[in-house]
Design goal:
The chain has 250 residues and is of the alpha+beta class. Helix content is 22%, strand content 31%.
């Protein structure tokens, strides 16, 4: 079914379709549908940049954006890194971790040490879904694609791998695809630190945006995204800016 949603078919070279309704992966007792890029067409980085700038995300080779007829809980976000101002808690997290952590860029190839850490994280954080059961092939299919420029950023304390942040390098920013970390070190705020580090990395590369993915107010695992300001949220086919002290609107 072709998507006729205004604002998405302004580029006829980018074929988009609307899925049938299905059970929501995030909120119980709700149905969902998505707008997705035609999977039979080979995507590329310029196409993905165009779609990311309209609230889309990547999972493996698939590019999608929620388009639920009766729910607008999934809010795409992007962060203007040049204007970002960390709050007190974020500054404390940065100071606590930055002196002890080293970061290394790694190619998007399977690595057993990374996969072992992912399995520990998924079993601790996502034991109610199928992500905890991913084998090596499903894991790589989820995090990488055949066309993206994907980087695995390794975070280590001394020689111990404590976190991995997977980002797609785009012409105008970094898209934070997924992050996992040692569940025994949750007290360090490694998820927040990894996002702060990606903000700084985006700045250093001279890029404009960090795309942290979707935010859902009712999903506690995503609450940390609401603490970054200024931030922009995609709604009504445009980006809306939220400053410090201003709550995100659905």
């Amino acid at each position: 079914m072709n998507s006729s949603d205004e604002g998405f078919q302004t580029n006829p070279a980018i074929p988009l379709y609307l899925s049938q309704e299905h059970d929501c992966s995030y909120l119980q007792d709700r149905s969902a549908s998505i707008i997705y890029f035609d999977p039979s067409v080979e995507a590329d980085i310029p196409i993905y940049q165009w779609l990311v700038d309209r609230g889309f995300r990547r999972s493996g080779n698939h590019i999608y954006r929620p388009a639920c007829p009766s729910c607008h809980a999934c809010v795409p976000l992007r962060l203007p890194v040049a204007q970002f101002k960390p709050n007190r808690s974020q500054r404390r997290c940065w100071k606590q971790n930055n002196a002890n952590i080293t970061v290394t860029d790694r190619p998007s190839e399977f690595d057993q040490e990374q996969f072992d850490l992912y399995q520990r994280y998924a079993k601790a954080r996502h034991n109610d879904g199928n992500m905890a059961d991913f084998g090596p092939n499903e894991y790589m299919d989820f995090l990488t694609s055949s066309w993206s420029e994907t980087i695995f950023f390794e975070f280590r304390i001394d020689s111990k791998l404590v976190a991995v942040a997977i980002s797609d390098l785009l012409p105008d920013g970094l898209s934070s695809t997924y992050t996992f970390y040692d569940p025994d070190l949750s007290h360090l705020g490694l998820g927040i630190y990894c996002l702060l580090w990606q903000i700084e990395q985006t700045q250093q590369r001279g890029l404009h945006w960090l795309y942290p993915g979707y935010w859902i107010k009712e999903c506690k695992k995503m609450n940390y995204k609401d603490k970054f300001r200024p931030i922009e949220a995609w709604s009504n086919n445009r980006w809306n800016t939220y400053e410090t002290g201003q709550p995100l609107a659905l």
